[in-house]
Write a structure and sequence with these properties.
Blueprint lengths: L13 H7 L11 H8 L7 H13 L3 H21 L4 E5 L9 H8 L4 E6 L2 H4 L2 H5 L6 E6 L5 H6 L1 H6 L7 E5 L11 H10 L6 E7 L5 H9 L13 H5 L6 E2 L26 E7 L2
Parallel strand pairs: 1-2, 1-4, 2-3, 4-5
Antiparallel strand pairs: 5-7, 6-7
The protein binds S-adenosylmethionine (SAM).
S-adenosylmethionine (SAM) binds next to helix 2 and helix 4.
Keywords: Methyltransferase, Transferase
Organism: Actinomadura rudentiformis
GO molecular function: methyltransferase activity
Length: 283
């Protein structure tokens, strides 16, 4: 007999899932957040997610390294903008928490940092309690919303309660825009969000790319099928066009973004990276 529980839930183990998972979270269908969690070595995933992950990794074995580099990019970019005085974050495409999430990295340097996380997937909502944890000096909130509706995100009361959008904010679009199809206008979505930011705000953006081998990239992206989102890997030029109305900081849109010369995390390779990250400032 299935049992409905109100959020926030504890994420059940795989064995418990069939009896306690809320009905809107279907563990037999692959979810983007859980596929990603599996590729990063997390435990919050199910057989359907692991099958998609295995197929993507078969087509693009270096994808796991790329995803780990992406997490390193996220952490570096958060530190970069906090060091330049921006302590408010709008992080869209939260994912399932791993170590070193935006609020943890930001609040380590600036305990008063405020973070609004946004994700459209109920599975991520199930983890929201972990994201809310903090030492009470800053604030963290989680909003379930869709990147394809930027106006709804910007006007959400929960976000306005935590962030002052009249002051600089770091907008994080990290490893999410490849889940927006061309016909959903990813460039226009970024432009609408950037337009709402105060001067002095930052855009932190990373994106999967097929540049190392377009045919292999297309095959890998095609494996991300039947999941909660499809994947569109793009070229450097296409991703660069997302930085409109903002000024890229050095070193630009690159595979190994490291302006402060931090050491790479152990075991990472800089060869064959299937993605780029960049940080830009709004003047
Ligand atoms: C690959 S994870 C990235 C997590 C984190 N930003 C990182 O880079 O480690 C992508 C996340 O974006 C979310 N996502 C995908 N499409 C979305 C959409 N249209 N609106 C909101 N969230 C979305 C997924 O549910 C998933 O949690």
């Amino acid at each position: 007999m299935s049992e409905r529980r109100e959020p926030p839930w504890r994420l059940p183990t795989a064995a418990e899932a069939e009896t306690v998972m809320p009905p809107e979270i279907d563990t037999t269908k692959p979810h983007t957040a859980r596929i990603y969690d599996y590729m990063l070595g997390g435990k919050d995933n199910f057989e359907a997610d692991r099958q998609v992950a295995a197929q993507v990794l078969q087509a693009i074995p270096d994808m796991q390294n790329t995803l780990r580099l992406n997490r390193q990019f996220l952490r570096r970019a958060v530190r970069y903008t906090v060091r330049r005085g921006v302590t408010q974050f709008l992080d869209i495409g939260t994912g399932i928490p791993t170590a070193g999430n935006t609020h943890e990295v930001a609040q380590e340097l600036a305990p008063e940092a405020r973070i609004a996380y946004v994700d459209h997937d109920p599975i991520v909502l199930a983890h929201a309690r972990a994201l809310m944890a903090g030492d009470g000096r800053g604030r963290t909130t989680f909003v379930q919303a869709d990147l394809r509706e930027p106006e709804k995100i910007l006007s959400a009361t929960e976000i306005q309660n935590v962030l002052d959008l009249d002051k600089p904010v770091t907008l994080m679009l990290v490893s999410i825009l490849h889940f927006i199809r061309d016909d959903e206008d990813p460039h226009g979505i970024v432009a609408r969000l950037v337009d709402a930011l105060a001067p002095g705000s930052y855009l932190v953006l990373s994106h999967a790319s097929l540049d190392p081998n377009p045919q292999q990239g297309a095959e890998g992206a095609a494996q991300w099928r039947n999941a909660s989102s499809t994947m569109t890997m793009r070229s450097h030029a296409d991703i660069l066009r997302m930085f409109q109305g903002v000024e890229l900081v050095e070193p630009g849109l690159v595979s190994d973004w490291n302006p402060d010369g931090e050491p790479d995390e152990p075991g990472l390779s800089l060869a064959n990276v299937w993605g780029y990250g960049g940080v830009a400032v709004k003047r």
